[in-house]
Amino acid sequence: MGAHNDIKLSQCKMIIAEYKLKVMAILETKLDQQATARAARLINPSWSFLHNLDQAPYGRILILYDPCLFTLSIITSSPQFIHCHAVSTSTNLSFYLTFVYAFNSVNARKSLMHSIPFLRQNSHPWLILGDFNCCFELNQRLGRNALSNNEIKPLKSCLINSELITFKKTGMQHTWNNKRISSSRTYSSIDHAFCNQNALDFWPAISLHSPPPLLSDHSPIILSLSSVAMINNKSFKFFNAWIGEPDFQDEVRKIWHTPFFGNPLVILQRKLGALKAHLKL
To answer: How far apart are CA 195 and CA 164, in angstroms?
Structure first.
């Protein structure tokens, strides 16, 4: 997404507030060591962060997390992934998290597809998510060039060898598009989340949601580990007394002038969602 842009960093803060996130990974950061620390402070100065700057120039993955709830430590990393050991500070639950940002070319992704099965966990919950830059089912691309079996084979084989499980996703089913017009536009599902059986046993109500994209050409993917579904139909009530609050107009104006990506209806939905998240704080 290019975390060198302060507007995009503000979008990250909005997503954290709206979905009450406790861990976030930002991909394609384009930041050096000093800029990475600055970005982390701007998003949430009380959170801790990890990165793979030692594996790739200007980094490719930035992980931010609430240290009051989790401790995260890097076990191994590469330019295409960071594999972490996580421990819940409240329950002492030990589990593993892998964040992926795959290279664009098939050949460059071979090392990633080879590495993932070696990260397999048989005795602890394991979650792996990110931008895999490829698909594992034929229906995961819409547009002029249909997927072939050869194209989906690498990731599909990787999932089998890693004993990873997919789960149903709500929201945007195709998480990326090339932003071209009319018949040249292509939609693909290249952002994924998977887990092992241990994770599914521990979090049977695990859910995945992909809201509309903001400034990026990717939709965020939101993974909820709560036993209660992340998205519910609980109504939101607006209290007229809020209008009299000193900073109400300024906050509405600030959110309304924040750029969002998408068609007019999606833009309206995202602005209202951001405003709702702020009012509920």
So the answer is: 5
